[in-house]
Request: fold
Amino acid sequence: MKIVVCIKEVPDSAATLVAEDGEATWGDAPLVINPWDEYAVEAALNMGGDVTAISMGGDKTALKHALAMGCKEAILVSDDALGNIDTQGAAKVLAAAISKVGDVSMAFFGKQAIDGDAGITPAQTARVLGWSALTLAASIDVDDESVKVERSIEEGIQTINANLPAVFSIVKDYGEPRYPSFMGIRKASRAEIPEWNLAELGIEAPASIVEFIEIFNPPTREVSIEMIEGGSPAEIAETLAEKIMAEKIL
Amino acid sequence: MKTWVYIDHFKGEALAASWEAIGAAKALGSDVSAVILGAGVEALANTAFEYGADEVLLGDNAALEDFRVENYATALSALASDVDLGLLLFPTTSRGRELAGMTAIDLNSGVLVDVVALEMDGDKVVATRPIYAGKLLQKTICNATPQIVTLRGRAFVMPEAEAGRTGTLTKVEVNIGEEKSTVEGYAEAGGGVSLTDAAVIVSGGRGTSNNPNIEPPADLDDDAAEVWRAQQGFALIGDLAETLGAAIGASRAAVDANYIPYANQVGQTGKVVSPDLYIANGISGAIQHLAGMRNSKVIVAINKDPDAPIFKKARYGVVGDLHQIVPALTEAMKAKLGK
Reply:
């Protein structure tokens, strides 16, 4: 039984994003592995088997990071037809890639990608595969063919039992991801990363049902700050409390 | 356009964003059917009518006792495929998101996720959604039916409940398909107000551990002593939050230093929030944190460093020590609010 982790390359979370001509730009900020996906790699590596990392698009930076963390293999799914793919399409392509790896029992994802912020690709991939979606997992306990997962939901923790194969998405409560080791980085830099196109996956380019019309900058909010000063904390607090009450939001 | 709104609930308690979604659908000029799935949830139907639903489709079945996304998706997809449905709305909750996603796969449609504004263009819904944690906005449409959209909580006006309002209650048979999982149980979160629903949030950052006037127990090592100090700081923040009926938030720095659980993290890799009032205490204002709270209506910043970036986003600022200002503010607010 094999383990797969699906990862994505995104602009660094510290990047300044600006919309130009209806597209997102991030200057010379680096592309990195999606921060949520590091937790997914960590969880996948903790399952004790060999882990294959799969990324759709990107220039292999995220895959090299996953290899440096300890993944055994990495595969880039790359095709000109994947340019404006929506989450439904991504789920179909990733499901096909997971099927091509073959004999996969667990497929891991981050909770969401910090670029599109949709957070539904794990559930949709599970649906395409016909597997359980064990999302927002904070802990995973595998016993042979069955698994117990603690899910982090609005109301607290839901404990759920399911059979494998299953798709997992991992939240930060799972535990901090490991740093790539020096040896890992060296190994990753020399690794051969095969590329699979859609023909090799045996699927047509999925139609993009969701159409992206434009990306634009949010309206700038001109906030003029009012500094509250006073002779003592009590005096400052009193003035601030009056200002807060005057906003009529409490 | 035939419009359904999925009512998300936990054990019969609806999440407020479900009612906001009914309001949003009515604002588009649609007759609205609310879809309620669960076990013993008929009482929700009356509330849905009061918030504006014209019809309620009630799938009440013991097998739906626990939310398991696969089974709920099978039930919902079967209902939706029987009608010519134009628009299917969900609240953006953890359940709503995934249910929308699976239903889209089943119905060969697509999802516009976490939408903050809707407008009609002919029979198409044009949805605006934040991307990159709200650093940018994106306009999208769904070129299939039903158009599936999840709406961000607090982005749409909560409709006024009209007591005694009624509508057509339609009980439906549900088919839940194969059961792939069983729910063993639930454990409650730390309690208090949920961040994403909160009208007021009081947050703490690294600065919570900087009180020079307290002495940690001598048997703690440096890391534990720092966490102990921060917990005293967060206790002050908790008092203010309790006074204001607020949720407690935190910066990533505070979470990574183990001052407070991850569930409290606000920001790009935490929760994105838009309360009416956000009080940031000892938070410098990294770009990732600002992305998560920039849409708050009124931001108050309390920080020792006059150059902290948080002051650039704040309406009111205090340069000072949160350990002195926060308790004083708690007392002042108690007096104002008659508590």
Chain A touches chain B through 81 residues (CB under 8 Å).
